Amino acid sequence: MGGLKDELLKAIWHAFTALDLDHSGKVSNPQLKVLSHNLCTVLKVPHDPVALEEHFRDDDEGPVSNQGYMPYLNKFILEKVQDNFDKIEFNRMCWTLCVKKNLTKSPLLITEEDAFKVWVIFNFLSEDKYPLIIVPEEIEYLLKKLTEVMGGGWQQEQFEHYKINFDDSKDGLSVWELIELIGNGQFSKGMDRQTVSMAINEVFNELILDVLKQGYMMKKGHRRKNWTERWFVLKPNIISYYVSEDLKDKKGDILLDENCCVESLPDKDGKKCLFLIKCFDKTFEISASDKKKKQEWIQAIHSTIHLLKLGSPPPHKEARQRRKELRKKLLAEQEELERQMKELQAANENKQQELETVRKKLEEAASRAAEEEKKRLQTQVELQARFSTELEREKLIRQQMEEQVAQKSSELEQYLQRVRELEDMYLKLQEALEDERQARQDEETVRKLQARLLEEESSKRADLEKWHLEQQQAIQASEAEKQGLESERSAKERALQEAMEQLERLGRERKQALEQYEDVKKKLEMATSKTKSWKDKVAQHEGLIRLIEPGSKNPHLITNWGPAAFTQAELEEREKSWKGKKSTE
User: Fold this and answer.
1) I want to staple 205 with a disulfide (CB 3.0 to 4.6 A). Which of 211, 287, 379, 567 is the partner?
2) Which pLDDT tens digit goes with each residue over 368-392?
3) Rounded CA separation 362/364 (Å)
4) What is the distance, to the nearest Å, from the Cα of residue 153 to the centroid of all Cα atoms in its chain?
């Protein structure tokens, strides 16, 4: 009953909308009373004028909206409707109310009667929402059936082009737009008015009147046993036969149920293409015009009986319901896809924010590393400047000592004897100097180790900056490679972590080298202190006498702690190395 109510509401909606002359969504009470009376008449529902007056008593002077009319319509008309009224008469009453207001004035290929049938077909195929529209899929279904009945070829490309030019702001066509589309002959070119009318009538019979098959056949009488030509019409539960196809003179019905059956008969008594329809109380012998028609009728009747056994609706109604369910399913899938896309977009935005946060952290880390490197370079420059100053001072001290040695060389002859006496002390002094030289060699070894560690640290920092640059480039790659980039980023972060661990290990090794350097420095200071104590003892013992040590003919550098462990050429080579590293960094 719910399906019947929905179908009736569509036709009533057209009538109500037509009475809304100023498009305000409301209709005056007198018009609604007339509409209600007409509906009760065609639907064969007892009319209750008192109930109508009571329902609109508070609104006698003003118009009533569709929502205001629906309670009365449901309670006093639709809930009382039985399936015993003439549907065509009901549809024609609603059509009469709305046709003059809405049907286009331009000439059409179809008659007004054909337009009425298209209007009823529209109500059958339209969506169950208001304002009523027919979606492109149902338009294609209807046009295909019309083209098939007319014997023409379906132009799929033409319809696709029509859908492309379809107004995106609308989900489908209204009934009047559908009538104009069929009436202007856009999809029936080359067909005359009579062919189009015949096609509309046949589709109307199938979809609206539930005519599954119709045609002329010979029927054998039950009393006189004579054969008479009749026009047979097959519907879901009945086969009616008429004198002619105008359906004016009905001769009888064959009631079908799940107990009926249809059988093929051999030719006899000069009649060919015979088949038999067995019902509960009667048996009908029928002769088709040819074998093809016979097989078609047998198959159609058999399918109808099978549907009655299953309790299924007619094929076109079942197909319409499947199409609607498919559209609902596709719409639900589309909404689910849109929801998933929104979730993916939100997750993508969150991932982008996370990547941006990581990038900022990496930039901050790189900035801190650059700042530390800058401080290290500044410290290195300061140390280099201080070492250069100390070297100059050592050169000056050595020059002064050489001058003093030259000045005192003449006095050395006078003290040769005393020197021999001091040979024992001199041997001890030599041991102290040997300790000092050994300490200087250790210091040079530590310096070389420190230089190597600094080079490795610089190399690791360059690798770190390279990896950081590669990671920044990977972050800016396309979204389609995000998953791959994520794994690559993880690998680079691990490599970065390993590089940081190596850098920390180099820092620890550098710290250890500095500690070794401090130990060597302390030893050197101890050796220098011993040397100085021996020199003080010699000075106190001999006054202004100074010892002349045997050495190389090449000039030697003098440091704060005595003669250096490297030559002038070695010092210049180190200065070139420092300047080269500074320019590279």
Assistant:
1) 211
2) 999 999 999 999 999 989 888 889 9
3) 5
4) 40
